[in-house]
UniProtKB/TrEMBL annotation:
Gene source species: Shewanella litorisediminis
Family label: Belongs to the EPSP synthase family.
CDD domains with a match to the protein in the record: EPSP_synthase
Pfam families, sorted: EPSP_synthase
Keyword Cytoplasm: yes
Catalytic activity annotation: 3-phosphoshikimate + phosphoenolpyruvate = 5-O-(1-carboxyvinyl)-3-phosphoshikimate + phosphate
Name recorded for this polypeptide: 3-phosphoshikimate 1-carboxyvinyltransferase
Binding site for 3-phosphoshikimate: 22-23, 27, 170-172, 198, 314, 337, 341
Amino acid sequence: MEQLRLEPVSRVNGEVNIPGSKSISNRALLLATLASGETTLVNLLDSDDIRHMLSALKSLGVSFTLSDDKTLCTLTGLGGPIHASKAFELFLGNAGTAMRPLCAALTLGTGEFTLTGEPRMEERPIGDLVDALRQLGADIRYLKNDGFPPLTINATGLAGGVVEIDGSLSSQFLTALLMVAPLAKGAVTIAVKGELVSKPYIDITLDLMAKFGVKVVNDKYQRFEIAAGQGYVSPGKVLVEGDASSASYFLAAGAIGGGEVKVTGVGRLAVQGDVKFADALAAMGADIEWGDDYIIARGSKLHGIDMDMNHIPDAAMTIATAALFAEGPTRMSNIYNWRIKETDRLAAMATELRKVGAEVEEGHDYIQITPPAKPVHAEIDTYNDHRMAMCFSLLAFADCGVTINDPGCTSKTFPDYFKRFANLASAD
Ligand SMILES: O=C(O)C1=C[C@@H](OP(=O)(O)O)[C@@H](O)[C@H](O)C1
Ligand SMILES: C=C(OP(=O)(O)O)C(=O)O
């Protein structure tokens, strides 16, 4: 197994232009496919999750060109659903933003599609989405365990009507349903059951649907109405914002490292809810400055916080390691869904934080972290979870440095993360 030792860094100063948002990239690729007209995606993310979406679309016959650095993509839309005359098997890795939306989108046309993924994908639920699609007439069969991929879709189109969906495990189910609703045969009304988690991701979905010309009536995120006969129409060009979750590591580095770090490509005007990470960091005492498309974090004395982090589930992991540099305990609550992501993130986080000397209380849906007087050096296991690798890089700001096992797992969303981190650390 590859290991990366990060030597202690005392201070950072610099600027990082953040690569494109995973959430926007995969949504935009799918909507561009279903839309009429040609779409140019600017600042597309080049990472495993996007490669899985692109290779699925390519297998299905969607035509697109990519620039050499793969951040500029021009895609010719189908002007409607995908119709296939032979059976397809599509491997989607561990990309939730490919698996869930494609599962829904492939029910719209005709054909037989089998969706598979990495072993961890077979443990990540999809049942609430499949249940909702079945209410609209979809024929979906599980190949191994009920409620989990792999699965086979026998597509004949979706009827309209009222559909209930459970939003308490993942917002990606509602996102997937919203994106296909305009192409159902009749009007669709979506009623959300349970507490909707990760709610700000729905705003990204609605924003992109609007950019592609579809109107959705949103009644307090509990009921959505999508009129029939609305096709997606390409807006021509979609500019992908920098990824707000990816920005969190550098902002935390600025806040902990005692210098000043500016992230560009994402700021006050961002549609991504994870920019609120900067507010959580500010609540810990960091000095944050917002621009329309940049955020600056300056070092200051940090203190622990007690916060519901359901609205920033991905960037919240960065707060867990930033908490090691704060005075007093940090409690992060309402994050049960950490357990069903790339790994059981509550368990993984507790185990690895204890290795560096923190006192950790792990509950069903919360974690409380009391920092050690001085963190100790540890080899951090990353559980094939890009965010475990990236957030533990912050331990480079402790006198002991840190060793990251399997650093290559950042390729899911940020292939050159450690190169960027090293550039920043050496820029002072
Ligand atoms: O819709 C999206 O793009 C995402 C939604 C969130 O998932 P859940 O809704 O499952 O919490 C987030 O964790 C994931 O990285 C991306
Ligand atoms: C949960 C994540 O990914 P996915 O899109 O696979 O759900 C993540 O990126 O932290």
